[in-house]
Design goal:
The chain is of the alpha/beta class and 402 residues long. 36% of the residues lie in helices and 20% in strands. An 8-stranded mixed β-sheet has the order 5-4-3-2-1-6-8-7, sandwiched between helices. A 5-stranded mixed β-sheet has the order 11-10-9-12-13, with helices on both faces. Helix 10 packs across helix 12. The two termini are 23 Å apart. The C terminus is likely disordered. The structure holds adenosine-5'-diphosphate. Adenosine-5'-diphosphate binds next to helix 9 and helix 11. The site of adenosine-5'-diphosphate has 13 residues, from helix 9 and helix 11.
Length: 402
């Protein structure tokens, strides 16, 4: 490997990374994928090569207190492992692009300053995303960096889909629905022509069900509407976020319980959703294993809310032709897929039990009018593609049909 592109996805307690090398064929080739997890506690760095073999799995010698220190640990490992190679670009997942950034953007000090203003709109992710950019600037000042936004894919909605019906004078240009998980949806839309050609240009709902969860209504591969809104709190029930909540309930937290803005923020981002309902865990695997009635209630609500969203997005699309499950829960939990599809049977959705228990990608029965799919997402590859195009590392045609 001569040159490589590094992709970083900095989260609240982890730094995920991928190393891609220059495409000789039609798309980026994964060299390795890993993460530094439990930042701020008992951290661990691990990485595997493209075949899944471990390249490293150990506790760093010094404590990793924050994203900046995680980048230092990563830079050391990259230097050790790929010493002879040259990093030609770094692509970052940045959750919020705000009203201005509709496309991936080369990072400059001015871009960074503007993205900092958006921290209150994505307090769980944006600070870490920007800290990773700053840390790379320190370590590799000569390497160009690209910010790829989770909001960009949704920027061509009809205005009505992005409207927040509050008074015009306080709405301005900022208070609107943005939508998130756009890199995941863009990736899924990019592979549908190959994986599921019969629905690629039709009406499709993609369910990105991970720790964060949302759905996107696609028509001909373009986002028409999505369950996330102004922030990544709206819509579906998530690991620690509640999804849609009556705004009156939030007023109650302030007025009756007299909580501070910071306390309400913590409740909404870190203590609600599956964790809040169950009081046990934000991890779907724990809840599915548990026989506790509150764990069952959390799973029931997750399924109830997901089925309700499918109905809403089907109404927006005027019917659906395909349903795609992706991300941690969507890709791996046959039980959650089964339950959501059973609740959506009125849309002529029917799973094939055997296919659903397999790896897919198609998991619906022959009789099902809506075809159902389980397709792994790959936000990192999407970031590598954008970074390569923007930095002129690949020809625009190279992966146009993948
Ligand atoms: P994120 O990237 O948003 O942190 P992921 O897409 O990795 O999240 O998904 C994490 C979620 O996926 C967790 O709730 C985890 O429990 C769930 N998950 C992973 N594998 C399974 C499985 N086999 N069954 C049920 N849930 C699973």
């Amino acid at each position: 490997m001569d040159d490589y592109t590094l992709v970083l996805n900095a989260g609240s307690s982890s730094l995920k990374f991928c190393v891609f090398h220059r495409p000789e064929s039609e798309d980026w080739c994964l060299e390795s994928r890993g993460q530094i997890e439990s930042i701020g506690a008992e951290s661990r760095i691990f990485a595997r090569d493209a075949q899944g073999r471990y390249l490293i799995d150990e506790k760093p010698q010094t404590q990793v207190r924050d994203t900046r220190e995680a980048v230092e640990v990563l830079a050391e490992w990259l230097g050790f492992t790929y010493g002879g190679a040259r990093v030609v670009g770094v692509g970052h997942r940045v959750v919020h692009g705000g009203p201005r950034y509709a496309f991936p953007t080369v990072v400059t000090p001015q871009v960074l300053a503007e993205l900092r203003h958006l921290v209150p709109l994505a307090p769980l992710h944006q600070p870490q995303n920007l800290a990773a950019i700053e840390a790379v600037s320190e370590h590799l000042p000569e390497v160009p960096q690209v910010a790829c936004f989770d909001t960009s894919f949704h920027r061509n909605h009809a205005p009505i889909a992005d409207l927040i019906p509050l008074p015009r004078e306080i709405r301005g240009s900022e208070l609107r629905r943005y939508g998130f998980h756009g890199l995941s949806y863009e990736y899924i839309a990019s592979v549908l022509p190959r994986v599921a050609p019969e629905i690629a240009h039709k009406r499709v709902i993609v369910a990105h069900l991970g720790n964060g969860a949302s759905m996107c209504a696609l028509n001909d591969g373009k986002s028409i509407d999505t369950s996330f809104g102004f922030t990544a709190l709206d819509g579906l029930c998530m690991g620690t976020r509640p999804g849609s909540v009556d705004p009156g309930a939030i007023l109650y937290l302030f007025q009756t319980l007299e909580l501070s803005a910071k306390e309400v923020e913590t409740i909404l981002y870190r203590k609600s959703g599956l964790l809040g309902i169950s009081g046990i865990s934000n991890d779907m695997r724990d809840l599915l294993r548990s026989s506790h009635e509150d764990a069952r209630l959390a799973v029931d609500y997750f399924v109830f809310r997901a089925a309700k969203e499918i109905g809403a997005l089907a109404a927006v699309l005027g019917g659906i032709d395909g349903l795609v499950f992706t991300a941690g829960i969507g890709e791996h939990s046959a039980e959650i897929r089964r339950r959501i599809c059973e609740s959506s049977a009125w849309l002529n959705i029917e799973l094939d039990a055997e296919l659903n228990a397999s790896k897919g990608p198609r998991i619906s029965s022959k009789a099902s009018k809506v075809s159902v799919w389980a397709i792994p997402t790959n936000e990192e590859l999407m970031i590598a593609r954008h970074t390569g195009l923007l930095l002129g590392l690949v020809q625009p045609r190279a992966h146009a049909t993948t």
